[in-house]
Amino acid sequence: MPFFETEFSGLIIFDPAVFEDSRGYFFESYNKKLFSENGIDAEFVQDNQSSSEYGVVRGLHFQMNPFAQSKLIRVLSGTILDVGVDIRKGSNTYGKVFYIELSEANRKQLFLPKGFAHGFSVLSAKAEVLYKCDGFYNKQSEEGILFNDPELNIDWQIPRDQIKISEKDRSNNLFNNVKTDFV
Question: Looking at the annotation, which residues are catalytic?
Answer without folding.
Answer: 61, 131
